Amino acid sequence: MAEFLLIHGSCHGAWCWRDLIPALAALGHTARAIDLPAHGADTTPATEATLDLYADRILAAIDGPLTLVGHSAAGYPITLAAERAPEKIARLVYLCAYVPVPGMSMIDMRRAGPRQLLGNAVRAAPDGVTYTVDPARIRDHFYQDCSGEIVAYAAAHLCPEPILPQSTPLPALTRWPGVEKHYIRCEQDQTIPPEYQVTMAKDFPDACVTSLPTSHSPFFSAPGLLAERLGRIASGG
C-alpha cells in the first residue's frame, strides 16, 4: 500500500483533506496532510511566508519516498520540493494544480491562462501582503458540486493567502524532470480552466494524465473516487 503526503492550495489548510484521508485509509493506504506556513493552524505570520519556506516545510514532513499530492497553487511548492530532494519523492501528483514554468510565478501563470475564472472574486488586503476570496463567490468557484455542510465548513476555515509565495518565479529545474509525475484534471473546475490544465500537463506521458468529473475540490465532492484514482496512480495501475 502507498503513503501519501497531501498539500493544500490557496486559502486552504490540512483541514480540506478531512474526507480524503479516511477514504485512502479504507483502501489500505496511509495519508497525512500538513499546513503550509501561515495556513490552517500554523502560526507563521503571513509577512514571513515564502515559497522557499513552503518547500522546506514539505521536505521536513517527509522521511522516505512517498507520493506527494499538490492541489491548485501547491503545484509550485511541491515542484520546488522535488527539485531540491527528488530522492524523497516517489512521484508527484498535480491535482488540478499549476505545473510551474521556470522564470514564471504562479500569478504570472494564472494571468497567462486562456480565461480568468476568478475575475473580481479575489480581493487584495490594503497592505498588499495577502488576498482573500469573496465569501459570496466561494461556492461558485471552489465547491459548486459540494453539499451545503461542506461549503459552510470550508467557509469557516478559509484563510487569507500570502501573496509573496505566489508572486515568486520558480528557478531553473534540473532535477525535477526526472521525477515521476501525474496530472488529475477536474473537468468542471471553475478556478483553473480545464483546458489550461490540459496545456500545463501536455508534456506528461498520456498514461499519466487523467480526469475527474468534478469541481476544483474533488477531495470534498468525490473523495472516494479521488482516493481510488490516487491508489491506482501509486500502484502503477
TrEMBL record:
InterPro entries: AB_hydrolase_1, AB_hydrolase_fold, MES/HNL. It holds the Pfam family Abhydrolase_6. It comes from the Bacteria. GO terms for molecular function: methyl indole-3-acetate esterase activity; methyl jasmonate esterase activity. Gene3D superfamilies: alpha/beta hydrolase (3.40.50.1820). Residues 4-228 form the AB hydrolase-1 domain. This is Pimeloyl-ACP methyl ester carboxylesterase. It comes from Albidovulum denitrificans.
